[in-house]
């Protein structure tokens, strides 16, 4: 009976320690928010003071603007947005690579907004830290003690994993989009060649192909046509397509169209040759992937099937020798 009461009192003591720690963290967070909201910490920066004098057009009245929806539930997004922006700037200064991030965003079909990506990295790091806290809580419940080194290490691993995972997802999205564009490229190139062979010009062929096709490459060509209609010449608009993607095939495609438009060379033959080159590259890529998959298929055979086969072959003899001994 005494052991039961001592165990219950120890469990209650651990529970009250968790409650006290949680209350302390909430108190510190509230004090930090109060200090951050003081007028002395909300002074306008130099950029804010110079912005009204450097803009080309005056700021419109706020009465005519539509209210923006709150970012996050119960308006918490508005509350934490400045802190997320500051943390994102810190992550950007620590990691660097803003031009690489902007280029990968363009390759993924997203607007080049490095600040938004850094904020997403901060949120991903916060989610990783929460996962680390939950994992530490499970360990603490299992071991009935609070492992502080495990907490610190799991939180750090979660934060770094969240930040690196968001960067990996961006690179993966860019690679997938470029793979879809590369798949669509031969068909689009042959359609352009047919339209040019029928007597249409480069702009008319692009408009016809954009009307008849759908996909990532067609969207990029529509963007090029929109730039051309906005005032840029066609070679400059197509060069923007080559700059937004990281595919050498599309770069050669754009160079071929630009040379054909500027010098008057036959465009249909160039497009057909490029479509054939892309198909040959696709065949080589499939052969390489098939060779890699064949090697991967040998892993379960060598490490699983072969040992089990050897064990079945040797076990009867070994058991017979054991009985003889």
Automatic annotation (TrEMBL):
It comes from Terrabacter tumescens. It is found in: Cell membrane. Residues 190-313 form the Type II secretion system protein GspF domain. This is Pilus assembly protein TadB. InterPro entries: T2SS_GspF_dom. Keywords: Cell membrane, Membrane, Transmembrane, Transmembrane helix. Pfam families: T2SSF. It is a multi-pass membrane protein. Signal peptide: none annotated. The keyword Cell membrane applies. It comes from the Bacteria. Its main location: membrane. The chain crosses the membrane at residues 15-40, 122-142, 148-170, 295-315.
């Amino acid at each position: 009976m005494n052991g039961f009461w001592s165990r219950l009192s120890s469990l209650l003591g651990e529970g009250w320690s968790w409650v006290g720690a949680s209350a302390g963290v909430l108190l510190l967070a509230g004090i930090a928010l109060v200090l951050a909201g003081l007028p002395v910490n909300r002074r306008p920066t130099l950029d804010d003071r110079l912005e009204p004098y450097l803009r080309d057009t005056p700021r419109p009245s706020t009465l005519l603007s539509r209210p923006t929806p709150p970012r996050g539930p119960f308006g918490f997004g508005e509350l934490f947005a400045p802190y997320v922006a500051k943390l994102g700037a810190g992550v950007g200064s620590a990691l660097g690579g803003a031009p690489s991030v902007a280029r990968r965003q363009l390759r993924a079909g997203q607007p080049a907004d490095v600040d938004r990506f850094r904020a997403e990295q901060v949120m991903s790091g916060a989610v990783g830290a929460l996962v680390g806290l939950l994992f530490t809580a499970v360990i603490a419940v299992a071991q009935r003690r609070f492992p502080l080194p495990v907490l610190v290490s799991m939180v750090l691993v979660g934060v770094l994993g969240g930040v690196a995972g968001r960067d990996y997802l961006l690179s993966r999205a860019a690679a997938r989009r470029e793979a879809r564009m590369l798949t669509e490229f031969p068909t689009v190139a042959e359609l352009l060649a047919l339209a040019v062979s029928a007597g249409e010009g480069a702009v008319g062929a692009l408009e016809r192909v954009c009307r008849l096709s759908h996909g990532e490459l067609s969207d990029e060509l529509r963007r090029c046509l929109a730039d051309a209609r906005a005032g840029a010449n066609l070679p400059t608009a197509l060069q923007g397509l080559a700059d937004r993607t990281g595919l050498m095939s599309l770069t050669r495609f754009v160079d071929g169209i630009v040379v054909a438009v500027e010098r008057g060379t036959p465009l249909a033959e160039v497009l057909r040759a490029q479509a054939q080159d892309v198909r040959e590259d696709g065949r080589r890529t499939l052969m390489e992937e098939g060779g890699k998959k064949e090697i991967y298929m040998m892993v379960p055979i060598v490490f699983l099937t072969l040992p089990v086969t050897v064990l079945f072959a040797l076990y009867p003899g070994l058991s017979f020798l054991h009985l003889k001994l």
